[in-house]
Each structure stands twice: as structure tokens, then as C-alpha cells.
Amino acid sequence: MNIYDSLPKDIQDHIRDKHFLYPQSAELRKDIENFKIIKDKIIKKYEDKGLEYTDDVTDDFNIYAWIENDLLSYWNDNIPLDIKISKNNITRMERFTAYNIKKDKKILSDVVNNFHNNNTNIKIIKYIAGLNICEREEFINIK
């Protein structure tokens, strides 16, 4: 049992009304839950490969560098970004509001560069979040 369930009904109602004015759809809740599950599975899978948590992302055994590289490769259909941005990559980026705002302002190259040139951990979170549930399952099954 979680803490919320153990609270009196009037307190539960107050919390729900105060903090959940805009309840999320079941689909969004399922997506959020799947994000966490898949992220944990990805990390476990790469740990099982013997990769390590190091501060140097250029280290050949850095877990985050491998995860980022494989996710980026999946996002762009195994095509190097400097050669071409795949249609699937654009479709996935369009799931982010910031991308769409910049796209509408005709500064697409800036947003593509910004999207793919962040801190490694941030990129991993973005890449996993930008995938839908089926794509996440596909990624975890091919890696």
C-alpha cells in the first residue's frame, strides 16, 4: 500500500483537487510508466554487457556513451547524422514542443543541432522519451 492510499478520503480529495486539476489520460500515464520500465531495462542490459559508470564519455566502456550512441543510431535509422537526418528522426523530434516551435520559426538546423548536442544523460532521457511504447520495445529487443 502506498502513502496516498493510507490517507483519509478527505485528505486524498484535497490533494487530488489541489495538485491534479488537469488529470492526464490513461495513455499518457501508460507512456510515463513504460518510459521508466524501459529506461531501467536499457541500463540493466548495458550493465550486463560489462559497461561501466565512468566520468569520461570517451572511455570505451562508458555505459552512457554506449546507450546514447545506440539510441541515436536507432533514432536516425542507423544513418550517420552528418550524412542525413532520417524521416523517422524528424517524426520523433516532432513529438517535442520545442522542436515544433523552432520549426515554425524556420530555424530547423538550430533545433536539430541543439537537440542532438546536449549532455549525454539529457540526450538519453530525450531519446527514450521521444520514442513511443512500440519503438521503445523494439529498441530494447534489438540491442
Structural account:
This protein is mainly alpha-helical and 143 residues long. It has a domain of 94 residues. 66% of the residues lie in helices and 0% in strands. The protein has 9 helices and no strands. Helix 3 packs parallel to helix 9, helix 4 packs across helix 8 and helix 6 runs antiparallel to helix 7. The longest helix has 23 residues. The chain is globular and about 60 Å long. The two termini are 35 Å apart. 15% of the residues are buried. The mean pLDDT is 84.
What's a quick, concise take on this entry?
By secondary structure, the chain is mostly helical. The chain has helices at 3-6, 9-19, 26-48, 63-75, 87-93, 97-104, 108-116, 120-129, 133-142.
So what's the oligomer here? single chain
Computed Rg: 19 Å
The number of distinct β-strands equals 0
- Major sheet description: none
What amount of the residues lies in strands?
under 5%
